[in-house]
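Q: Given only this backbone (81 positions), what sequence would you predict?
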């Protein structure tokens, strides 16, 4: 069954700078998409506020994954979620 997940790229002071909604078969696919968006948001050429974190919120409004620039040394599977 496909679920809707909301991906938010977070800037300074926990303010969302970009949002996307995806329908996937599971959290793993949504996590891959979120990490791709986060990497793109961190490229030096990008204008606007610097991306500091990414989070995934499920359809019920519960945060199910969060990854930040401070987690980068631990690997993507070790963030919350």
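A: Predicted residues:
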């Amino acid at each position: 069954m496909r679920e809707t997940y909301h991906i938010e790229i977070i800037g300074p002071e926990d303010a969302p700078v970009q949002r996307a909604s995806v329908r996937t078969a599971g959290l793993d696919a949504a996590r891959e998409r979120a990490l791709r968006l986060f990497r793109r948001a961190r490229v030096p050429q990008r204008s606007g506020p610097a991306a500091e974190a990414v989070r995934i919120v499920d359809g019920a409004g519960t945060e199910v994954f969060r990854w930040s620039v401070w987690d980068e040394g631990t690997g993507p599977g070790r963030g919350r979620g």
